[in-house]
Design brief:
With about 350 residues, the chain is of the alpha/beta class. About 40% of the residues lie in helices and about 10% in strands. The strands form four sheets. The protein has a four-stranded parallel β-sheet with strand order 2-1-7-8, with helices on both faces. The protein has a two-stranded antiparallel sheet with strand order 3-6. It has a two-stranded antiparallel ribbon with strand order 4-5.
């Protein structure tokens, strides 16, 4: 009998984790969700408190039967899917479909796939978070209700094959409203005046650029002002020097990672997330779906120690970043190298 069965979402992650846990642990993958709402009907009992009806995908029946056989033989089953709504729902569906005994089932989570993080997760299991499970179910039910109820109306009234969705319909409205604002905007020209000066006694390459502190509504007024400036003597009234300060960027969240990858590398959102997923599953970065800028104290201490050793204590300035996003999940960590 296998002592421990660990179930994760992806086969790539399973291989990485199995290296850390040793021979007493067998790590298997569920290959994502093992069941979902039935595809060819609404699958939601609106009259009965919006009760969902789930079915096991035909492609997943073999995976489910294999996991069921292994779970029945194992002394302990560890549900190790991701720590987000989808991951929690996957763990709950596994528990329900595999009919796992609560006494020999534990839920573990980790933000990075390193030996230390995995071993620590095994030492600190928790119960399934039904609030997260219900949040995922509510989102899935809303997806189905909006998509299945509104899309057919679009086909009849607008055009066949159009689709509506919980997110896409709202996003489309925002885009349309913004486009209407752009179309209704009345542009207005203004004229600004800049001067480039060569200070007396300086090298020819030294130039001072200055901009007039007001703008002109009419071109004639701007030209008239320039005519008046001909032959005038200009002087620097005062010089003020001050020290500038630049704050380092906050650690990556999902959205800022996508923005930087697009700006610097030209990556699409899907390309960025595909690369990040591979890096995470290989143990190189922390979990890539997060809206928090928090860093674990373990990571901060490790960075502080390395910087101090390489460059000296004066170069180590740890800081705690605050997440400005409303409703951000602070339990999660920012995206960082492991």
């Amino acid at each position: 009998m296998q002592e421990n069965l660990v179930i994760v979402e992806s086969p790539a992650k399973a291989k990485t984790i199995e290296k850390f846990l040793g021979k007493d642990f067998l790590v298997k993958s569920s290959f994502g969700h093992i069941r979902d709402l039935t595809k060819n009907k609404l699958s939601i009992d609106i009259e009965n408190d919006f009760q969902p009806s789930y079915t096991i995908d035909a492609e997943k029946k073999k995976v489910v039967s294999e996991l069921k056989a292994l779970a029945d033989k194992a002394k302990m089953v560890w549900l190790a899917s991701d720590e987000d709504r989808e991951g929690e729902a996957i763990a709950w569906h596994l528990k329900e479909v595999l009919e796992l005994d609560p006494k020999k089932t534990k839920r573990i989570v980790f933000h990075e796939i390193t030996k230390e993080a995995i071993v620590n997760a095994i030492k600190n299991p928790r119960d399934l978070d039904l609030n997260l499970v219900n949040a995922q179910q509510a989102r899935r039910i809303l997806d189905r209700l909006v998509g299945y109820e509104v899309s057919p109306i679009l086909w009849k009234k607008v055009k066949p094959k159009l689709s509506a969705g919980r997110v896409q319909s709202v996003a489309l409205r925002l885009i349309v409203e913004r486009e209407r604002e752009i179309q209704n905007f009345v542009s207005k020209s203004q004229f600004k005046i800049e001067g480039i000066f060569n200070p007396e006694g300086s090298k020819a390459s030294v130039k001072v650029k200055a901009e007039l502190d007001r703008k002109f509504e009419k071109e004639n007024d701007a030209v008239k002002f320039l005519e008046e400036c001909k032959g005038a003597a200009f002087a620097i009234a005062s010089v003020e020097e001050k020290e500038g300060k630049r704050t380092p960027s906050a650690p990556f969240t999902t959205s800022t990672l996508q923005q930087e990858a697009s700006r610097k590398l030209g990556f699409s959102l899907s390309q960025t997330m595909r690369v990040a997923q591979n890096l995470y599953e290989s143990g190189f970065i922390t979990y890539m779906r997060t809206d928090s800028t928090n860093l674990s104290q373990l990571a901060v201490n490790a960075a502080k120690q390395t910087i101090t050793q390489l460059y000296g204590a004066e170069y180590s300035k740890p800081r705690q970043y605050a997440t400005k996003t409303k409703g951000a999940q602070e339990a999660h960590e920012a995206i960082r190298p492991t």
